Amino acid sequence: MSADHVPVRRYRPPAPLGGRRRATGSQSGRNAKALLFLTPALIILGLFVVWPMISALRLSFTDASGFGREEWVGLENYVKVFTDSDVFDAVTNTALYTVLFTPTAVIAALGLALLLNSPHMPFRSFFRTALFVPFTISFAVAAFAWSYLIDPQVGLLNYWLRGMGVQMGNVLEDPQLAMPAVAFVAVWKLFGFYFVIFLAGLQDIPSSLYEAARIDGAGPWARLRRITLPLLSNTMAFVLIFATIAALQTFDQIYVMTGGGPYGHTQTVVMEIYESGFRKLDIGFASALSYVLLIATLILSLVQFVFFGRREKDLS
Amino acid sequence: MSPRRGNRLREIRPGTVLATIALVVVSAIVLLPIAIIVFTAFKPAVEVNAFPPSLLPDAWTLDNVREVTSELPFARLMGNSFLFAGGVTLFALVFDSLAAYALARIDFTGRKVLLVAIIATLMIPFQATLIPLYQLVADLGWVNTYTGLIAPRAADAFGIFFLRQFFLALPRDIDSAARMDGASEFRLFRSIVIPNAMPALLTLGLFTFVNNWNDLLWPLVFTTDAEMGTITSGLTLLTGPSGIVPHGVMMAGSLIAILPLVIAFLFVQRRFIENIATTGLK
User: Fold this and answer.
1) Pick from A33, A59, A85: which residue ends a domain?
2) Facing residue for B155 by CB, picked from A45, A148, A203
3) Are residues A148 and A294 in the same domain?
4) Are residues B161 and B262 both part of a single domain?
5) pLDDT by residue for chain A (316 residues), tens digit each?
6) Residues A254 and A180 in one domain
7) Centroid of chain to Cα B179
8) Are residues B233 and B269 in the same domain?
9) E strand intervals along B78-230
10) Taking each helix axis from N to C terminus, what angle separates A156-163 and A139-149, rounded to the nearest 10 degrees?
11) Which residues of B touch A192 (CB under 8 A)?
């Protein structure tokens, strides 16, 4: 039924990611077929992602607490989000966490991928495997292990560093060090994922480009700056967006390691949502805060996509 | 400067030596927490809290393993983890690949809008919808059931996006030829696209399994009965406000929780890392 007439070729501008396709069958026929394929996933996403999102939006305008009838309170929750000092601190903390986590994880992943993409490296597959192993370990277990390693009394890492003259003290109780510590655990757990994605991106760069550059006398630094980084910009956009989303939504290891302490210094936005929604049962306020976070994430992702996506387009 | 036509295998460059040393140091730091979990799990309690601390145990013991398996219904929790993570992986692979096929290979009205909408749902913090989602699952009577754990995750935006990228890259000449011959869209999906997408499916399957196995908040919220929890959520019961469990026991529990995943990963790692190179994940 799909080949009932000869497809007519007509000009279509190539889709940015897709490429040109030949039209087969009628548009309504294709719509019906597509719907069949999409239905199961759309039911699940609609029921368990979109519907709760709409409910959360409604709740954000109420004083819902999980008990009794909720009253419509208009923009009150949103006013509180923008004026509450705890929220302000949580936003500052989340920004600090994102600034600590994202560049560190992305640069570590990129540097290691560049090293391990070279065929001259010995033990290449051992290192590749070793660097990815933390990604298979849960944040909860990672948090237990790192907390034990940096324990001020019996922590092995603490003891070794003291031997080298570095005094860490009680890191998780130190307002200056607690946030870098929880960000470090996230770098440890997640950089292997970004590393593997960079490796894949590097393998897509045709080696003929490097040969040509070498003949033209370009050194390693010039090759990195003129070939590798520009051709990697699509991969970079993907990794940066995912790393930023991971940073903005961070929860698990902070919950286990510090619980938001000391004195709220690791209290992030999602910790604040969890606390107000599940502990204080201020569901309306938690939902409003969720929506503000959602919109901030969306804007940030778009900015990154436009910035890095455009660079790739300029090249081709 | 290295000679351009020299035998590359015999060359040892100073840069390579430095890079190797750097990689050894980085790998040691990366593997240290795993080493501490493994060795502490077999350390007697006196050594765990001894000063100065050491990495390796002097005397090896199974006490910690015994204690943690008696404190928690371990076999049951591991079984739950397998059912939950395995069930989610199975359903998500089927539903995601069906949806991804339509998004990548059928030119339907509103394709772009739908794709953007699906990607947008990725940016929703899971905690943001948790309360209404819990209310919905409770209304369906699914709290403390496998259905309640699995169904809300039986399809996910990341998987759809990931497989769509891969399906786009598969050559299209075969399907237009097959379409001309009257092959149905489902036949194309099943006998052309899926067999060629095995690397992507394996990669996504592993990601999905790992993420669900490791998830903490999901089983904490949707199960109130300790018998229905997973190994990851069960472990945190040990550290809960009810008391602090000795480090040795915690590490023994952690070891058992991570063992299946680490072993599974080591088995498929070479193919897995190579697969990512051929998938749309970049």
Assistant:
1) A59
2) A45
3) yes
4) yes
5) 344 444 444 444 444 444 444 445 788 888 998 999 999 999 999 999 999 999 999 999 999 887 778 889 989 999 999 999 999 999 999 999 999 999 999 999 999 999 998 877 888 888 988 999 999 999 989 999 999 999 888 889 999 999 898 888 888 889 999 999 999 999 999 999 999 889 888 887 888 888 888 888 888 888 888 888 888 888 888 898 889 989 998 888 898 888 888 888 999 998 998 888 888 888 899 999 988 988 888 888 888 877 776 554 444 3
6) yes
7) 36
8) yes
9) none
10) 40
11) 30
Q: How many domains does chain B have?
A: 2
Give the integer Cα–Cα distance in Å for B244 and A258. 15
Any idea how long chain A is?
316
Closest chain A C-alpha to B111 CA, distance in angstroms: 9
| Residue A217 to residue A46: CA distance in whole angstroms | 56
User: Tokens representing B222?
Assistant: 């949707």
Across the interface, whether the CB atoms of B282 and A45 are under 8 A apart is answered: no
Interhelix angle A283-315/A51-59, rounded to 10 degrees, is 130
Residue A46 domain boundaries: 1-59
Same domain, B164 and B33: no
Would you call A290 and B20 a contact, using CB atoms and an 8 Å cutoff? no
Evaluate whether residue B127 is within a structural domain: yes
Distance from C-alpha of B130 to C-alpha of B220, rounded to nearest angstrom: 12
Q: Report how many domains make up chain A.
A: 2
User: A82 and A51: one domain?
Assistant: no
Same structural domain, A282 and A145: yes
pLDDT in tens, B206-225: 889 999 999 988 898 888 88
Residues B137 and B75 in one domain: yes
Treating both helix axes as pointing N-terminal to C-terminal, what angle do B247-278 and A139-149 enclose, rounded to 10 degrees?
A: 130
DSSP symbols for A72-123: B-TTHHHHHHHH-HHHHHHHHHHHHHHHHHHHHHHHHHHHHHHHHHSTT-TT
Is the predicted ipTM greater than 0.95, yes or no? no
Is the CB of residue B196 less than 8 Å from the CB of residue B172? no
**What pTM, to 2 d.p., does this model score?**
0.84
Whether B82 and B29 share a structural domain: no
In a domain, B8, yes or no: no
Q: Is residue B161 domain-shared with residue B30, that is, in the same domain?
A: no
Of A118, A283, A298, the CB nearest to B131: A283
Label residue A164 exposed, middle or buried (CB < 10 Å: 0-12, 13-18, 19+).
exposed
**Length of chain B (residues):** 282
Token pair recorded at residue B43: 């350390």
CB contact under 8 A, B214 and A116: no
Identify all chain B residues contacting A150, using CB atoms and an 8 Å cutoff.
none
